[in-house]
Amino acid sequence: MTGTGQPDSGSNPGQRQTSRFGYCSWHQGHSSGVRLISVQEQGSGPGGGQYACHSCRVAYDLVPFAKEPR
Ligand SMILES: [Zn+2]
Predict the structure, then answer these.
(1) Judging by DSSP bridges, how do beta strands 29-37 and 50-52 pair with one another?
(2) Which residues span the domain enclosing 69?
(3) Which of 20, 42, 46, 65 supports an S-S bond with 38, CB 3.0-4.6 Å?
(4) How many angstroms does the Cα of residue 64 sit away from the middle of ligand 1?
(5) Is residue 68 part of a domain?
(6) Centroid of ligand 1 to alpha carbon of 2 (angstroms)
(7) Distance, CA 14 to ligand 1 centroid (Å)?
(8) pLDDT tens-digit readout, 19-44
(9) How many domains is the chain built from?
């Protein structure tokens, strides 16, 4: 079988919260400067944290989960 390999790299919550490279759940792609967004998911499924890049934050008016310095 030709497995493409899922981009499921275990991302540990790092101590550093300034401009981190991660996966943006909104435009479904990796981007730098993503932040954890507080998502109120309704229905089934564990409400995990989702990250959004700066562009999506502005476009969708997203609110970061926690305020970060600078
Ligand atoms: Zn994005």
Answers:
(1) antiparallel
(2) 20-39+49-70
(3) 65
(4) 13
(5) yes
(6) 29
(7) 20
(8) 689 999 999 999 999 998 876 655 65
(9) 1
Q: 59 alpha carbon to ligand 1 midpoint, in Å?
A: 9
Q: 11 lies in a domain?
A: no
Q: Is residue 55 in a domain? A: yes
First and final C-alpha spacing in the chain: 47
Calculate how far, in angstroms, residue 51's C-alpha sits from the geometric centre of ligand 1.
8
pLDDT of residue 63: 84
Q: How far is the CA of 1 from the centre of ligand 1 (A)?
A: 32
Average model confidence (pLDDT) across the chain: 75
Query: What is the mean predicted confidence (pLDDT) over 44-59?
Result: 81
Residue pair 32/53 in contact by the 8 Å Cβ criterion = yes
pLDDT of amino acid 2? 66
Question: Which pLDDT belongs to residue 61?
Answer: 92
Residue 12 lies in a domain: no
